[in-house]
Amino acid sequence: MFQQLPNTQPRLADEVYRQILSAILSGYIEPGERIVQEKLAAEINVSRTPVREALLRLEQEGILEIASRSGFSIRKITDAEVRQIYQAREAVEGYSARILAESGTRTQHNVIEQVFAKEQQSRPNGIEDFFRANKQIHRTIVEQTGNRHLLEMFDSLWNRGISFRLFAAISNVDLTASLGEHQALIDTIRTNSPEAAEAVMVIHIRDGLELQLEALP
Q1: How many Å separate Cα 122 from the centre of its chain?
Q2: Chain segment 108-128, per-residue pLDDT in tens
Q3: In CATH terms, are 12-74 and 79-215 the same topology?
Q4: Domain range summary for the chain, segments of one domain joined by +
Q5: In which element (H, E) is residue 166 found?
Q6: Which CATH architecture describes the domain 12-74?
Q7: Crossing angle for the helix pair 127-143 and 148-158, to the nearest 10 degrees
Q8: Of the candidates 102, 175, 115, 180, which has an alpha carbon nearest to the alpha carbon of residue 143?
Q9: Rounded to an integer, what distance in angstroms lies between the CA atom of residue 120 and that of residue 110?
Q10: Each residue of 69-113: pLDDT tens digit?
């Protein structure tokens, strides 16, 4: 599962982080399994330092928790935490949609439309591709408000590894159809109706919440 890496690779901890997160998402590392940095370091062929850094980063992001005997394990995500994440998304992304419908320009609307079209045409294949495409569309909406504080809050929510883990939990959904639902959202933003645009975004996010709650054990 793990690939050996040369010790000379720059930002080794980032690559180790990527491999560990991928192992968690794929099920190679299972819930309840103790993750030992010495064992990982030997398997990936790196020193313990980048492994420790990657594990601590995953702990800070809420993916792992410190287990007994100096190890780590996958942290269970509660329904309450999932709801809180989606409530925060409603606030940031719902308000962004309102701003763009109220005062957004045709150029801003076109940028969002172009990004959406590009992501659809790229034909995402697999959970990771769909996560990236979905994130890019939503981030573009927030970015086009020109409000850097909203964008920072968006990135804080979406850049956590927990977001990818939640998305990966949805295995019984037509993700192609789900990606296409963004067109209705873009069309509503173009109508220059702030209340409607915010409402459509909130409904879209709440639909995602229901899928997450059904998918999580």
Answers
A1: 19
A2: 999 999 999 999 888 777 777
A3: no
A4: 12-74, 79-215
A5: helix 161-169
A6: Orthogonal Bundle (1.10)
A7: 160
A8: 115
A9: 15
A10: 779 998 888 889 889 999 999 999 999 999 999 999 999 999 999
